Every structure is written in C-alpha cells, then in structure tokens.
Amino acid sequence: MPNTHRALARAPYLAIAAAAILAVSAQAEAANLGFLNDTPITYMKQRDLQALNNAAQVALNTKQDGESLDWDNKGAGNTVPINGTVTPENSFESGGLKCRKITLVAHAKGQTQTWTPVACKQSDGKWKLKKQ
C-alpha cells in the first residue's frame, strides 16, 4: 500500500485520542490553565496519539464494559515513556449507533491524566467521538 494510502487509512484511528486531547488543550489554553503544563498530554507526539488511538479502537471492538486494555508508546520514537489504559464503560445507543463512554488514561513523568469521551461506531465500522 503506498504511503499516502496508509496515511489515509490511519486517519480515522487518530480521531478519538486526537480530538479528546485537542479539546483538553484548547480548553486549557482558552481558560489559561497553566497547571496542565507537564501533564502527559504535553509529552504526546503524533505517533503516541496513534498508539493510543489504535488501543482505543481495539478496546472498543473487543473489551466488555469495565474491562481495560493496557497501551504504551514503545516504538513510537518518543524519548518520554507514556503508558496507560483504555476502558470502555457503559454501552448505549444514540441516533441508531452503538456508542460507548470510554476512559482514556495516560501516565508520563509521574503524572496521570484521564479523559472520558463518548465514541460511536459508524457505518464504516470505525469508532468516532460523539460531539458533545
């Protein structure tokens, strides 16, 4: 598969964590929440987000509510080790789509950060964040 096709194929997987992280970052900047400095999100790079998104897609497709999947950024090229868990929570239907609240946890440099977005399974089989 050519690199451009691979990049396009990965794009939906990046949506979950990237959207959650961007939302937190935007809120932090808008609210001048300097206390978010040196939290796991500040150490995450594109390939770290990809590792988190891959774990989220797997967890949403294979784990029962409350069952966690461990993830880490090994092999992502980041000198900062980042790891955590992805835990699908309550499943429900919304607008005819299967949705799940998901808890994303990241640990880096002694700090822990948690996000709890809702993801819904699209007709193409990919999970995407539900707009709140």
TrEMBL record:
InterPro entries: Anti_2
Boundaries of every Surface antigen domain copy: 29-130
Region Disordered, residue ranges: 66-87
Keywords tagged on the record: Signal
Signal peptide annotation: 1-30
Lineage top rank: taxon: Bacteria
Protein name: Surface antigen domain-containing protein
Source species of the chain: Caballeronia cordobensis
